[in-house]
Amino acid sequence: MDLDLPTVAGAIGAGSVLLFGTLFTIARFYRQVDQGKVLIINTLKSEPTVTFTGAVVIPIIHRAEVMDISLKTVEIDRRGKEGLICRDNIRADIKVTFFVRVNKTREDVLKVSGAIGCVRASDQQTLENLFEAKFSEALKTVGKKFDFEDLYTQRDEIKDEVVKVIGRDLNGYMLEDCAIDFLEQTPVEMLDPDNILDAQGIRKITELTTVQNVSTNELKQNERMAMTKRNVEADEAIFALERQRTEAAAKQKREIESVQARETSEAERVKSEEHAKSELARIKAEEEILINEQNKQRQVEVAEKNRERVVGVETERVEKDRMLEAINRERETELQRIAKEKALETEKKAIADVIRSRIAVDKTVAEEEERIKDLRVTAEAKRHKDALLITAEAHAQEKLVKDIKAAEASNEVSKYLAKERLTLAEADLEAADKTAKAKARLAEGVQAETAAPGLANVRVREADAVASEKQGLANVRVKEAEAEVIKKQGHAQAEAIRERLLAEAAGEQEKGLAKARIQEAEAAALQKRLLAEASGEQEKGLAHARAQEAEASAIQKRGEAEAVAIQEKLMAEAKGLAEKANSMKALDGVGREHEEFRLRLAKERDVELEAIRVRQSVAESQAKVLAEAFSHAKFQIVGGDGQFFERFVKAVTVGASVDGALDHGEALRTVAQPYLSGEKDLSADLKEILSKPGLTNDAQNLAVAALLHRMVTSAPAPQAAAQPQQPIVEGSARPASSEKSQG
Fold this sequence. Notes:
The chain folds into six domains: 5-65, no CATH class; 69-191, Tetrahydropterin Synthase, Chain A; 273-327; 381-585; 587-632; 657-742, no CATH class. The N and C termini lie far apart (169 Å). The chain is flat and about 205 Å long. By secondary structure, the chain is α+β, with helices and mostly antiparallel strands. The protein is built from 18 helices and ten strands. Strand 7 and strand 8 form a beta hairpin. The chain crosses the membrane at residues 6-27. It is a single-pass membrane protein. Residues 32-176 form the Band domain.
């Protein structure tokens, strides 16, 4: 097959252009990826393409993102109050570095990129935000399993445990390793003593450091003692060597002298040698004795110091235990007192609730009884009124035949008489009701007044029992029993008075009911009498009606009309009375409360006035007593410090003693009579005696004492007069001493 050369050349050229264009496109859009990074290409497929080397990225069709999968570090630094809590509750400042990277697999890369995105996955801050809480929680979990010292000795185990708790796979990320970069105990001043864990850590740190400090101090003291002992032994050896050298020199000198003096006197040499030997033995013995005494004294002082240290530590421990026991005992006592007060308050509240409920029940029962009585009386009055109305109507109709005016008059009279009786009966019944209610209220007031002293006594007894609780549980129980007895007595008295007043109220109520029955009986008798009169009038009317039947027939219609009018009038009046009664009944509660308030206010006013009169009487009596006491009193206002007041009291005491001695001592009064009457001057005599030359102060004091003694003993003085003389002698002798000191 023959091919045209231009065609072949054109095909080759087109193929070359296409090849070079394809190679240029590949070179232009091919993207390589550095080590530690991955290229994610979003194509038209459902899953993106992941490559760790490189790939062709076509614009518009493809979207390429680079994600950093290199190894990264996440640091967890916990210091101060945020430090790591160990198993022994000691807090540690720790800094741990975690090495994290994205696992180099297509699935893990897609998982990470889909979860947080390629840009955030390559951000260091994002990694710290993602894993800081998880790593911190794992670190706290593992740290609580080890003691503080184990953090230093078991670092590999701690590191493996942290990795185990966190896990190698972290949703696409992989935990390579972790390293403890910094580890140190949290300073004690950074711990929170109000935190229970920090408090336990502080206690353990204090215990350990105290023990170590004591051990260190003991080792230092032992070292000091050993060094001192060695120095003493060395000094003793040096002193011994110096002594030997001195002895050798003395011996050499002695030998020289002995050689020189041998010719003079052999006897003198022997004597000198013996004397030197004896002196040397004596000096050596004294030196050994002094050395032994020094060693003994040093050992005694060391033992004494050790004993004082042990005794001091034991004393502090015993004092601490005693204080803790006292605090616990006071705490138990306070808790028991609070529980007892709480129980007492509960019982008081229960008793008050029972009394309140009983009073409410009694009040409800009384109100219901009074309401029933009101209904009964109202019904009786209504029946009575209806009966009278019917009787009046019949009487009026019978009277119409004879005399319509007389019938009307009789009807009006009967109506007003019945109304008067009814009003009197209702008034008596209402008065009886009010009297009964007043008696009941008075009974309740008397009950409250009677129970008040009992309850007050109970409260006083309870307060006394609480105040004397520390004097013994037996005394408290006795006081509580007395309070209970008084309380029961007060309740019993209140119940008795209440029953008595209720009985009186019931009696008054029965009296009112009896009066009401009497009124009802009178109304019934009146009704019968009116009925009898009406019957008689009816007979008369019938007889008269037969004579005037025609006239009655004409008048009857008019009378019936008037009777109907009268009936309507009476019904209207009855309705008005009923409404008035209902209105009065509605106002009974307000009136009763107002009356009770008025009575209670009057009673309180009387009580306060009586209390004021009593206080006024007491104040007047006290004023009279004070006026009578102060009328014969003599006041002297003095001032000064406490020592001045003591001297003043002593002076008053001495003066009173001297006055008593002069009043009751015949001999002393006889001796002192010239001085008291003014014939002699005691100060002049004393001055004359003390001013004699040649007398020392001691002699003058003795002379004054002898003079006073002769004055006292010159006559047979009684015992009562002899006792007050000592203050006089002392008071006379002391000024001499003070003159001596002043001179």
